[in-house]
Amino acid sequence: MYKINIKKNSQSIGSLQEWSQIGKPMKQSQWKDGRSAKELARYILNGNGDFPKEIEDVLLQIGCTKNKVFECEPEKETALIGVGKGRQHDLICVQDGEVVIGIEAKVDETFGDLLLDELSKKDITSNKVYRITSLYKNIYGDKPLNISNIRYQLLTGVSGILEEARQHKISKALFLVITLKKYGSYNQNKIDSNKNDFDNFISSISKFNIGNSSFGPYKVNVYTNVNLYVKHIEVKF
Description:
By secondary structure, the chain is an alpha/beta fold. It has 7 helices and 9 strands, in the order ββαααβββαααβαβββ. It has one domain (4-75, 89-107, 158-236). The strands form 2 sheets. The protein has a 7-stranded mixed sheet with strand order 2-1-3-4-5-6-9, with helices on both faces. Strands 7-8 form a two-stranded antiparallel ribbon. Helix 5 packs across helix 6 (152-168). The longest helix has 17 residues, at 152-168.
């Protein structure tokens, strides 16, 4: 079993009520039954101090040790290039000196706009352009932008977890997308669309894969000291 300790602002979280009071998203509309933030909280808390089995299986696959507790924080913000709000992780978990995990939870919500659409907005700021192009370069290098099928949240999510790994001086990072299929709460067509977007992202970084599996590890442009894993799982409940 992989033990976890959930805290926000030094306050422990052990129940859904405590998560709601301390660690829920800033927007109240995101905290409701059948949506990703609240269902992720339920899913993680159901482990009773351990990671749920589906996550443990992934950790075993990437060779994580079991003798250190994971320190987890919901709604953790990681500063990104440029001014303004950074990357907001649904849940970030750090095993000291070993691995940092960024969890992106979805029921059937999208991964945001395509980069092409973001850059085509009439009211886009120069800072947003700078952020997108810089994050892209940090992962893909100097090759021309190929942004027709890459979603903004996938770019910022991976960038955020790589930056967390660098800040913690940890050489292993996992960006984990969890689709939470709660009966009666999701649209399968939207889930299929998300899976296609995820697969497109994996295809876009495939040349950086130095491992023997589709989820890595990857060694991307400016983070060559970090073994990056990118994985998607579905959970039915």
